[in-house]
TrEMBL record:
Keywords, ordered alphabetically: Lipid metabolism
Superkingdom of the source species: Bacteria
Keyword set includes Iron: no
InterPro entries assigned to the protein according to its UniProt record, in alphabetical order: Acyl_Trfase/lysoPLipase, PNPLA_dom
Protein name as it appears in the record: Patatin
Organism for this UniProt entry: Arthrobacter psychrolactophilus
Pfam families according to UniProt: Patatin (PF01734)
Transmembrane segments: none
PNPLA domain segment(s): 13-204
GO biological process: lipid metabolic process
């Protein structure tokens, strides 16, 4: 378990979203780096979005070798996510289709977030309300520690009612499990108190690397290759965020999956059977990139 980063603004680790396989790949990359004597979990802040929020909780709460070993194991049926309104593959395709439709009907990112929230709340009204408690239990079972880590972490989401971007931390007054569950809630709203929240991938991008502004070195792990369905003119893409960070003096390094592993992500992101392959691919990539990352990370 990493030590606290304190108040230093030197190194930021950004863990992007990418579904279940993206989570496995993130763990694999970090474990591969660790086994090559590069420990990026000692970041001064870790920024997690969606599956990256789960990975943030996992790498700050468990020993990496054991975490990686568990990720390589096939997922037992009992640990699968609760059933939602449709099958995994259909749900992923439908979700992407709804997202594209909402983008096409939106005037900009703020309008898109409001429309996404309204659509999600409407869909939730027609969904079995037991999903929330089931999802919370599923997320809690994935976390090595249900308490907020002492190390600074930021977990992203959006407010489903207002569409406003949200960032949770240990001072937000909510439980760690709820912050993670909201950040990776995908297309269904997760209720905390009297508000509903949606997946952090809707905030700006699957990475939300802009939250690392002010840090000297920013390492971004992006399971989805920095891609975005949003129009380039909206300026929401990872590339734009990197330009913004660089303009204010940050050095940025990005790790993305190799092209030959592309089939493990995207529409297959929620295929639990692909988690071991994604983790192994990430691990090998981490070992290969260790020297480069070491020179960057210090």
């Amino acid at each position: 378990m990493p030590a606290s980063g304190g108040d230093s603004h030197d190194r930021a680790l950004v863990l992007g979203g990418g579904g279940s396989t993206g989570n496995a790949w993130l763990i694999g990359v970090i474990a591969g780096l660790f086994d090559a004597a590069v420990d990026v979990t000692n970041a001064d802040v870790i920024i997690g979005t969606s599956a990256g929020s789960t990975a943030t909780a996992q790498i700050t709460g468990a020993a990496l070798p054991r975490l990686f070993e568990e990720t390589l194991a096939p997922v037992p049926l009992a640990r699968s996510a609760p059933r939602r309104p449709a099958s995994t593959s259909t749900r992923t395709a439908d979700h992407l289709g709804r997202f594209r439709t909402l983008i096409d009907a939106s005037q900009g990112p703020a309008d898109m977030r409001r429309k996404m929230g309204a659509a999600a709340l409407q869909m939730a009204a027609a969904t079995d309300s037991s999903w929330q408690s089931q999802w919370r239990a599923t997320v809690a079972a994935r976390l090595p520690d249900v308490e907020w880590p002492h190390q600074p972490v930021l977990l992203t989401a959006i407010d489903a009612e207002s569409g406003d971007p949200v960032v949770f931390n240990r001072h937000s007054g909510i439980e760690f499990v709820d912050a993670v569950a909201a950040s990776c809630s995908s297309g269904l709203p997760y209720k905390i108190g009297d508000r509903h929240y949606l997946d952090g991938g809707f905030r700006r991008s699957s990475e939300n690397a802009d939250l690392a502004a002010g840090y000297s070195r920013v390492l971004v792990l992006s399971p989805l290759d920095g891609r975005s369905l949003q129009p380039p003119e909206w300026g929401m893409q990872l590339a734009t965020q990197v330009e913004e960070l660089s303009a204010t003096g940050s050095l940025v390094e990005i790790i993305m999956p190799n092209a030959e592993e592309e089939h493990l992500f995207g529409v297959n992101a929620m295929d639990l059977s692909m988690r071991p392959d994604a983790a192994q691919a990430g691990y090998e990539q981490g070992k290969v990139l260790a020297r480069r990352v070491s020179d960057f990370w210090g």
